[in-house]
Amino acid sequence: MSTSVVVTGLGVTAPNGLGTDAYWAATRSGTSGIEPVKRFDASEYPAVLAGEVPGFVAEDYLPSRLMPQTDHMTRLALVAADWALADAGVQPSEWPAFDMGVITASSSGGFEFGQNELQALWSKGGQYVSAYQSFAWFYAVNTGQISIRTGMKGPSGVVVSDQAGGLDAVAQARRQIRKGSRLIVTGGVDGSICPWGWAAQLAGGRLSTSADPDRAYLPFDPGASGHVPGEGGALVILEDADSARERGARVYGEVAGYGATFDPKPGSGREPGLRRAIEIALDEAGLEPGELDVVFADAAAVPELDRVEAEAIRAVFGPHGVPVTAPKTMTGRLLSGAASLDLAAALLSIRDGVVPPTTNVSPLPEYELDLVVGEPRVTDVGSALVLARGEGGFNSAMVVRKAAD
Amino acid sequence: MPTQELTIEDLRRILREAAGEVESVDLDGDILDSTFEELGYDSLALLETGSRIEREYGIALEETSVADVETPGALLEVVNKQLATEHAA
Description:
Chain A is of the alpha/beta class and 405 residues long.
């Protein structure tokens, strides 16, 4: 029997709410944070909408010493980590440094910071490039900065698998707790809303070019035509269940199952790996499909990918066999932050007995999904499955459930 | 026309721009003989500070000359000595 691993703290920075309470209130009520891009002038680009975190003034939360050396998404991550620790009632300075670690997900690092320094290099010369470019752009930068700020010296790292990383990092954190760490700060807070990040994401061919915030990101809908990108995500505090119980921590839920697979080579005709990832995660959690209460979908909003996800869900749970939702229709897809935010939403669903809605979507009947649309669904939630796929073939599935008393 | 001398006021400003400041330290106080470590600046902060001084004053500092100085006073001395030499030449 493996060590049980639980979530004891949440820190959320999301496009429809800064802080867990603001995010959850907006998400339950179907309030979107998708708007025209404000971080740069995107009006001449094919994609003009984004989910940007509202009202975030980094200087209100972080010391000036960190300002010249951090990308916007790292600032969001540092604040999310602070909030998650406070939510868990953990003061890291009171813990042995080597009992705690940091494992975050990243998709591309600090692109906005990197773009500024590359512009300085090309337009003015090497001596105008910040010394902090050495790490501020880097994939592992959020992990490093959180580790330095909190004094955590235990097992740490970064997982890079596009959107799937938001679950893969949590799985890696769980491995480290099973190996003896007491606490890991994990999850993903990401963002790349700058011209360079925009160009890179546009090249991927999956961005919606609609200018209508209510029609731009429509997973499982006949009008699905790509997604709106966003920034933010969630960091969570993962702990050994016994250790959490001993210190009297409030527990949001247990990370009960996880499966990760990779798609077969394109054109091979073999089934994509998502169904198998779901089955592995359910199997580890010891759940029959009929016992699961809700699925938080990856929700690519690319017709072919929607079809693959709907088929995987139907294959495991049967037609209309389980409630499915995609609250990311209110935030856009947050790169490696997306699935971590869904994980936080799943745990809040368990806490409050309510499934947040998918907004603006009328699902294609042939998908045979019980998609929770329009209104939140009040129902007892004992377990939830979060799905995430990363470009290039990554599939991850994670089951969280109400912790045993 | 580059400024001829780096003053402690110039250095305070450049330090703030390059690396911010630690809340518990009064950067406007008497810092000439404080160590950069006491002021909360690590080697990377000094590298960035040195790079900004080079840009602003149009000089090229020896990498070791910045890496070896431990106090603002010593840094002023190194920079101003080089400024005097270069302008005399």
